[in-house]
Design goal:
Layout lengths: L1 H14 L3 H15 L7 H10 L1 H8 L1 H8 L3 H7 L3 H20 L11 H22 L19 E3 L11 H10 L11 E3 L7 E8 L7 H19 L3 E7 L3 E8 L2 H9 L9 H11 L6 E8 L9 H14 L2 E8 L3 H14 E7 L5 H10 L3
Parallel strand pairs: 3-4, 3-6, 6-7, 7-8
Antiparallel strand pairs: 1-2, 4-5
Length: about 375
């Protein structure tokens, strides 16, 4: 009960835009995106003073600002001034103590479950705040988003029908024909959705070292958007987080919170093993006649094994033999990577998206989902 009360308090604070709570959630979220699961204030301060340029690459601008209360450019200008160093050290220690007092880190400075909960809520809120103004959650951004058919697919509206399925024009025409000055419940008509089988998705996210920072943050948010929308549509979503091995695996589920927290915990490290990831994904899908689709996000060609490219293509062929289609979202791939990516989606009968600008990854992932429903 105490844990539930803590989570409820965190949710209220985040939804009410409590700046301090949200900043703490961002600090935790950014630390995970940079590959850290704990804080050592003395070591961090020493690294900032000894070689600020290198420390900036390790920690990232956002995390440094959230920990120190200073912009990166300001620290760079003043890092060699003793008085500023003392102030910087004091700020970092104060922020760490605040996190400890709120049970967001333990006595060993390691992130707690409560910290993951808070970071999850902030990740969720940031992505919904990003999607709603774009209209992505409500608009048909792909021609296959919802398939209604022709006139015969209109039915009388029932209490349990969703309001988003209301056939407004048909309802208004009927009300006018009946001479009603206002729209009455008996006038309401709804679209009858064409039946389709269940869709099982696996979102496979590259968490190799090159993905750390903003790149992995936006890919996590794309996963949140996919899980939110697909589960709303009664489909199931699984998760694979991979680097040199599998770091996290969840079979397709309707448990959005489980997926949200798992994505929040992701830390980037090591190399890329795509072939092993695809083979592992095959085991997560049910052995039955349903639509099975794997969405793979990566920023590099495979680097593990004697012949990683051939191993990858063989794994894709095995997935296709098991009824799994595969789409690939490639982030800033080089020419060799693009060439392999084209072969992957050709065999996997999916879509290829080459990303140069990261901001629209969530929209692209949703478009790919819509193309298979």
């Amino acid at each position: 009960m105490a844990s539930q009360e803590d989570e409820d308090k965190l949710m209220r604070s985040v939804l009410q835009n409590d700046k301090k709570t949200i900043d703490e959630g961002r600090l935790i979220k950014d630390s995970l995106n940079q590959g850290f699961g704990s804080f050592n204030p003395d070591l961090m301060f020493e690294e900032l003073v000894r070689n600020y340029s290198m420390a900036r690459k390790i920690y990232g601008d956002s995390l440094i600002k959230l920990l120190s209360d200073y912009d990166s450019s300001y620290i760079k200008k003043n890092i060699n001034i003793p008085e500023f160093q003392r102030e910087l050290k004091k700020n970092i220690k104060r922020r760490i103590e605040e996190l400890k007092d709120k049970d967001l880190i333990d006595k060993d400075h390691t992130l707690t479950d409560k910290a993951i909960d808070l970071a999850s809520l902030v990740l969720y809120k940031e992505e919904l705040d990003n999607l709603i103004p774009k209209g992505i959650l409500g608009e048909k951004i792909h021609k296959k988003v919802f398939v209604y058919g022709d006139k015969e697919d209109i039915k009388n509206h029932k209490k349990l029908d969703r309001y988003r399925d209301l056939a407004i024009r048909k309802s208004l025409k009927l009300a006018i024909r009946r001479g009603h000055s206002e729209l009455q419940e008996s006038d309401l008509k709804s679209f009858e959705r064409k039946s389709r089988g269940s869709i099982y998705l696996v979102y496979a996210l590259d968490a190799s070292g090159s993905m750390k920072g903003r790149k992995i943050d936006l890919c996590k948010k794309a996963g949140v958007a996919l899980a939110y929308k697909a589960i709303e549509e009664k489909d199931k979503v699984g998760l694979l987080v991979f680097g040199s091995d599998i770091k996290e695996e969840i079979s397709p589920t309707e448990d959005f919170l489980l997926l949200l927290k798992a994505m929040t915990r992701i830390k980037a490290s090591k190399e890329t093993n795509i072939a092993f990831t695809i083979k592992k994904a095959i085991t997560l899908f049910p052995n039955q006649e349903v639509t099975k689709h794997l969405i793979l996000l990566t920023d590099a060609i495979p680097t593990i094994g004697k012949n990683p490219e051939q191993d990858t293509l063989e794994a894709v062929s095995l997935a296709k033999a098991n009824g799994i289609t595969l789409s690939l979202v490639g982030i800033n791939l080089d020419k060799k990577g693009e060439s392999l990516a084209k072969k992957i989606v050709e065999i996997g009968e999916g879509n290829l998206y080459i990303i140069r600008e990261l901001e629209n990854i969530d929209k692209i992932v949703l478009e790919d989902y819509y193309s298979f429903i």
